[in-house]
Structures are given as C-alpha cells and as structure tokens.
Amino acid sequence: MPSIVFSAGDPSGDAHAARLIEALKVRNPQLTFSGLGGPAMQRAGCSLLEDLTATAAIGPFDAVRHLTKFLRAKRALDEHLRAQHPDLAILVDFGDFNLPVIAPLVKRHGIPVVYYISPQVWAWGRFRLRSIRRDVDRMIVFFPFEEAFYQREGIPVTWVGHPLVESAHPTMNREDAAARFGLNAWRMTVGLLPGSRTDEVRRHLPLMLEAARHIAWDMPGMQFLLLRAAAIAHEAVSAPLSRAGLEVRAAEGLSTDALQAMDAAVVASGTATLETALCGVPMAVVYRTSWPTYVAARLVLRIPHIALVNVIAGEPIVPEFVQHGAQPERIARAIVELLRSEERRAQMQEALRRQVKERLGEPGAVERAADVVLQSMK
Questions:
Q1: 3: buried, middle or exposed (CB in 10 Å: 19+, 13-18, 0-12)?
Q2: Contacts of 366 (CB under 8 A, 6+ apart)
Q3: First-to-last CA distance in the chain?
Q4: Cα separation of 76 and 101, whole Å?
Q5: What is the pLDDT of residue 119?
Q6: Mean pLDDT of 135-162
Q7: For residue 378, what are the contacts with CB-CB under 8 A and spacing of at least 6?
Q8: How far is CA 375 from CA 20, 27, 28, 139, 161, in A?
Q9: What is the C-alpha to C-alpha distance for residues 378 and 136, in angstroms, rounded to an integer?
Q10: In 3D, which of 273, 252, 267, 275 has the Cα closest to residue 168?
C-alpha cells in the first residue's frame, strides 16, 4: 500500500499534520502514515515512531537540552526508512530539526520530500536556501509572500492559503461567550495568550500577568481571560497565577469562542496572532526568548517585524514588544490606550481585516494541500 512518512515537532505542527492526514485519507483510504509527531497525528491514524511535541523550544539554543531525544528520533526514523521505504516524506515546519537533519536523511534514502508549512527562512534563514534546493522537492506554503519568495529563488512552491481561515469562526456571540468562560459581559475583558510551548509560557506568562496588574490598576473592574494551550501542563500556569495576586479566568485551548469574549489581547508572537486577527480582536504582541537565541536572530533577521500579522500586512498594524523591549508597563500602556479609545480599536480591527484576513486565501487550504501531496506521489 502507498505510504507517507511525516516529521513534525511541536503542538502546532502536530495539529496541522493531523488535519492533512485526515484530508489525505478521504482522498485515498489506502494510504498509510507513519513518522515523528504527536498525539493529534496518532489520533488521525499515524503510527508514531517518536513523540516530539514535548521538545518544542524557541530557537536552536533552547532545543539543545533535547538533543538526546532528537538523536533517538533520527535513529528510529533512519531504521524505519530503511525497512519500509515510504513513497513520500512530508516535513512539517520545525525548521531547526527538519531542515538540517531530517530532509537530508530522507533524501539519502531516495524518498521525495514535500515541506508543509515553511520555516521562516525568508526572515532569518536565507543561508538554508541551498539545502532546501538540494533536499526539498516542493514547498507548500500558507502565505502569498512565501510563494513569491520561493519563486524568486527558483524553488518549486505552491501557496494553498491558511487553514485558520475556515476554522476561526466563533459559535456564539459575545454575551454567550462571556457566560461560557465565567466572565461578566458588561465588563471589558483582556485576553492573555502566552504561547503553545512550555518555554514560551515560562518566559511570557509572568510578563503578561505583571502587565495585567498594571492594566487593572489603570482600569479598575477589568477582567482577564488566560488561554492555556492543550499541550501546556496545568501546573505551568497554575503556579504563576497563584503568585500573581490577580483574578484571572483560565480556559484550555485557543478557542475562537474565548477570543469572541475579548476586547483586546496580549499575544505571544506566533500563529495565535493570526487567529486573534481573524476574530477581529485588537492586540499587542510580545516575544521573549533566550539571550543567545535573540542575539543570533538579530544577526540574521531580514525583516522589520516579528508579528505575523505585521509581516503579512507589511507594516506595523499591532504594537510589538520584543526581548528587552517587552516590559510590563509598556505593554499595559498599549492595551489601556486601545481600551480607552473605541476609534483606535475600530481602526486596528479594520486594518486586520483588510490587510491580514483578506490576504490569507479562501477556505479549503488543507484540501488543496492534500491535492498537491497526491500529485507529488505520481
């Protein structure tokens, strides 16, 4: 039977790979799936060689402590490729591992490689274009500017749009959403979205909670809703919350219904900024990583913005607070200014709709990606 091997390494990649597997199964029920990934892929029918979702880190320096697990996963995959020789490999994001380690390994076995969800080489990793040309047969990308980038570099690429376009649809209005999450619909709500990786939450959540304290001081009666990603242990958020001395409601998962209850949000840089934008929630974006990773990134970064919504728009629609610039007082000031001005919130919402939402393509991205994958197997 035809088979596909996957390599995904963080909760987001695991979820995207799982949806792609489900779309492929609809098109060809004979397909079998195996590889490196996480629980979502396993539930979708992928036979896991190693669960890598617990290794998700922010940058290569933070990932070093997982080196033993990465080496074990590489050996397991190597043995699997030798024994089973799948028809195609799909590498999902996770560029610090998939590009330098997995892509050349797969190519040595003579297996075609499709890369699903481009690492941000257009921002920081142009030195990796040579290895992409050598080891990747086709890129499948979510953003139109990525398609233009790879086309300029002579790399086969297909833009399919972004899967969030069809999934970011609330199922309830603001009043019902407030009731669902234990909020008062008559009070303003600020969302706190610290990230989907343990390292991100460790760096971002205390910062966000301190910013929330400043917001509450300036605007008494403010309420806060913290969204904990499913992959984050409850203890990772409960301890900081208990020390904060602040009333914060907590909900699991990046729920579009939870976003519906928010008047503004503080969001860790990443895909969550897109879902927040698609739901029309004004935001401030924060990002902190280890200092070695930050210094290395500054040396190679080739774009003026780090928030995806700003990268897509090509201008700073939402304020960004990065590394040493991510100070609670500054973040709080930006949110308070948004909350106190209905006009500023409306302007940001309109910019997010016109310059972000409308550039993410039409619904059906995963199905289009599945069609590209099947074409690559012929």
A1: middle
A2: 19, 20, 23, 160, 163
A3: 14
A4: 13
A5: 86
A6: 95
A7: none
A8: 14, 12, 12, 13, 18
A9: 16
A10: 275
Question: Is residue 28 pLDDT above 70, yes or no?
Answer: yes
CA distance 34 to 73: 13
Q: What is the pLDDT of residue 62?
A: 47
Domains of the chain, each with CATH number or no CATH: 3-161+361-376 (3.40.50.2000), 172-359 (3.40.50.2000)
Between 258 and 124, name the one with better pLDDT. 258
Segment 271-306, tens digit of pLDDT:
899 999 999 999 999 998 776 665 655 555 556 788
Q: Tokens 């993410």 sit at which residue?
A: 360
What are the structure tokens assigned to 46, written together?
Answer: 């992928």
CA dist., res. 278 & res. 275, Å (int): 5
Measured between alpha carbons, how far is 362 from 145 in angstroms, rounded to an integer? 16
Distances (CA, A) of 374 to 43, 150, 174, 371: 21, 21, 41, 5
pLDDT band at 65 (very low <50, low <70, confident <90, very high): low
Give the separation between CA 313 and CA 307, rounded to whole angstroms.
Answer: 10
Q: Model confidence at 11, in pLDDT bands (50, 70, 90)?
A: confident
Q: Six-digit token pair at 204?
A: 């971002």
Q: Read off the tokens for 215.
A: 């917001």
Answer for the pair 354, 309: CB distance below 8 angstroms, yes or no. Answer: no
Residues 231 and 12: beta-carbon distance below 8 Å: no
Say if CB 44 and CB 14 are below 8 A apart: no
Average pLDDT, the chain: 90
- 45's torsion region: left (phi>0), alpha (psi -120 to 50) or beta? left
CA-wise closest residue to 294 among 272, 325, 327: 325
Average pLDDT over residues 361-374: 96
CA dihedral 346, 351, 353, 354 (to 10 degrees): 140
Where is pLDDT greater, at 294 or 28? 28
DSSP string, 204-224: HHHHHHHHHHHHHHHSTT-EE
Q: Retrieve residue 178's tokens.
A: 């407030």
Tokens of 57: 């880190």
Question: In the block, which residue shows the tokens 């994001």?
Answer: 93
Distance (Å, rounded) from C-alpha 356 to C-alpha 366?
19
Q: What is the total residue count of the chain?
A: 378
